[in-house]
Design goal:
By secondary structure, the protein is α/β, with parallel strands linked by helices. It is built from nine helices and eleven strands. The protein is about 40% helix and about 15% strand. It binds NADP nicotinamide-adenine-dinucleotide phosphate. NADP nicotinamide-adenine-dinucleotide phosphate binds next to strand 9 and helix 9.
Length: about 290
Amino acid sequence: MSSTRLLPGGPVAESVLNDVAARAAVLTEKSVTPSLATILVGDDDASAGYIRIKQRQAAELGFDSPHTHLPADATQADLHAAIAAYNDDPAVHGLLVQYPVPGHLDYDAALQAMDPDKDVDGMHPLNMGRLALGMPGPLPCTPAGIEALLAYYDIPVSGREVVILGRGATLGRPLAVLLSQKRPTANAAVTVVHTGVPDWARYTQRADILIAAAGVPGIIQPEHVKPGAVVVGGGVRYEGRRLLPDVDESVESVAGAITPRVGGVGPTTVAMLFRNAITAAERAVAAA
Ligand SMILES: NC(=O)c1ccc[n+]([C@@H]2O[C@H](COP(=O)([O-])OP(=O)(O)OC[C@H]3O[C@@H](n4cnc5c(N)ncnc54)[C@H](OP(=O)(O)O)[C@@H]3O)[C@@H](O)[C@H]2O)c1
């Protein structure tokens, strides 16, 4: 029997969401209902499913969740008008545009049209800048979820060698910034490897904590991992409804601790979305 410790995201998410619900209740007592608005363009089934999950979660936490569904042939101006309406509505504290948008639309332009303080995905350029500068602001959800997961399981990060495979804007790059910040749950020696480093295994093999953020199924094999290391699988590719993780299942035999192939980082990402939303609501109330 393997002695590898599993690090599921579910309990981490539950603990974050319990805190969010308590904070939502405090606002409700002050007659403010926290509100997370969503915008969906088109009829992609998976995207509609993600919106439903977020709305269900919102209801459980005591949030309002106003929603705008634009047709697949909506123009960039239509999308920006929907964003502007939520930007200007003081009762809406958080906003997200479900990714991806149809190919004729520019998602980055839509992101930039959002009020950065309502950007619960933490992906607005201003929020990326705040992250780089260590200023308060909504954090990108998947990187923040990974920091929370490591902290929840008392995995020491400070002073340890963290190697991240992938430098993408949603995961690898912001995670490198986050885990190198001066904070007890971060403070690591972080190395980022990618296609520009063909011998990347040389780096992953010495990692105390290895984080896969490539989106290449099975790219992390046992020979890439130091025996006993902590392995976090962030990267996944979807083939239809099948989820194909970066970390091969055989890695479990060498890792000391590992996120499960399903129910690892994913649940923490959603929890961080609501943590960003409740923080935005609290800030708005404090500023009013
Ligand atoms: N679990 C979740 O909740 C969640 C949430 C968000 C994202 N994700 C997943 O996280 C992954 C990363 O997302 P992203 O948007 O940051 O990705 P991205 O922009 O596609 O970046 C992928 C990175 O992986 C590197 N890479 C790809 N193939 C490689 C190879 N063969 N060898 C070495 N490096 C390689 C790329 O290197 P180059 O830069 O050199 O091209 C790039 O830096 C995706 O799989 C995404 O689905 C998961």
